Amino acid sequence: VYGCIGLCWLLAATLGLLPLLGWNCVCAFPRCSSLLPLYSKGYVLFCVVVFALILVAILGLYGAIFRVVRANGQKSPRAPARRKARRLLNTVLMILVAFVVCWGPLFGLLLADIFGSNIWAQEYLRGMDWILALAVLNSAINP
């Protein structure tokens, strides 16, 4: 468990330090993101890919947890064990749906910024505050 926590902190520190170590666009403005002007589009794409991989890992881990709980619940002939498995499934689905609903618009906007035109990104820059607020809200609604 401590190894996983340490790995999470290491990943966060690495992602945070990369722009300071030179992966930015301070001197190369055409490579800059329109929505995050200090970051290069390559760095923003890298972060989106890392977060997508984290989502895949979350899906896999929650799926494995649910399979174990369901298998243990099916061994038990009692209805309460099945109810616990159903409640776990509902909780896991709520967490995953909340994550996708809260972070999905931001990822979509960042991908549009990377692969779209700067004019399009500037048009949606006005909604950036709401999209960022929705992403931060994920921590508040996560059960």
Automatic annotation (TrEMBL):
GO terms for molecular function: sphingosine-1-phosphate receptor activity. Its main location: membrane. It is found in: Cell membrane. Residues 1-143 form the G-protein coupled receptors family 1 profile domain. Keywords: Cell membrane, G-protein coupled receptor, Membrane, Receptor, Transducer, Transmembrane, Transmembrane helix. InterPro entries: EDG6_rcpt (IPR004064), GPCR_Rhodpsn (IPR000276), GPCR_Rhodpsn_7TM (IPR017452). GO terms for cellular component: plasma membrane. The keyword Ribonucleoprotein does not apply. PANTHER family: G-PROTEIN COUPLED RECEPTOR. It holds the Pfam family 7tm_1. This is Lysophospholipid G protein-coupled receptor S1P4. The chain crosses the membrane at residues 43-68, 88-112. It comes from Cricetulus griseus. It is a multi-pass membrane protein. SUPFAM superfamilies: Family A G protein-coupled receptor-like. The keyword Membrane applies.
